[in-house]
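Section 3.1: Structural characterization of target chains.
Under the original work plan, the team committed to producing a structural model for every single-chain target entering the pipeline before any wet-lab resources were allocated. The record below documents one such target. The sequence was received from the expression subgroup and is listed exactly as submitted; it comprises 52 residues.
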Amino acid sequence: MRVLFVQGAASDITMAATHELFVGSPADRPRDLPIHRLLITDTLNQEPTPPM
């Protein structure tokens, strides 16, 4: 995604993911991106993640 932003892509992004499981350092990665809204659906119970 960073390459798209460098090339001038819109910075107000809505990202959708299915069966996402944030563990360890990947949980911090979305905070580094200009994501306006993150939509996730999953069939596994997860601990609440911190707000972005």
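The chain has one domain: 2-41.
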